[in-house]
Design goal:
Number of helices: 3
Strand order of the largest sheet: 2-3-1-4
Radius of gyration: 17 Å
Keywords: Membrane, Transmembrane, Transmembrane helix
CATH architecture of one domain: 2-Layer Sandwich
Structural class: alpha+beta
Shape: elongated
Largest sheet: 4 strands, antiparallel
Distance between the termini: 60 Å
């Protein structure tokens, strides 16, 4: 097992780096903004607006909202106001659309 440790560590780090690259958002445009677990959706929206972003929509996870940023400094401003991290707005972090059946 000791002989396999370097290969296993290298493989794990490679998988983490690829996953981080695939989930990283652009510096501006549409992105999912994650807040601490007990942040309300209203508070998250007010932080996004205060940081200069626009509301796109909620996600399936209440403390993650999708925002649109015109400039690349949005992430820094949002971080200073309480945002934890930013992800691509896809999958669970995609904007939730309400579809009504007729």
């Amino acid at each position: 097992m000791r002989q396999l440790a370097p290969a296993l560590i290298y493989s794990a780090v490679s998988v983490l780096l690829v996953a981080a690259f695939m989930l990283a958002p652009q510096s501006k445009g549409e992105m999912a903004v994650a807040f601490s677990p007990f942040t309300s959706e209203e508070t998250a929206w007010s932080i996004v607006r205060a940081a200069g972003g626009y509301a796109v929509g909620p996600t399936r996870i209440p403390n993650i909202v999708v925002a649109y940023a015109d400039d690349s400094d949005f992430q820094q401003r949002a971080r200073s106001l309480g945002a934890l991290f930013f992800l691509k707005a896809s999958g669970l972090c995609a904007p939730q659309t309400n579809r009504e059946t007729t």
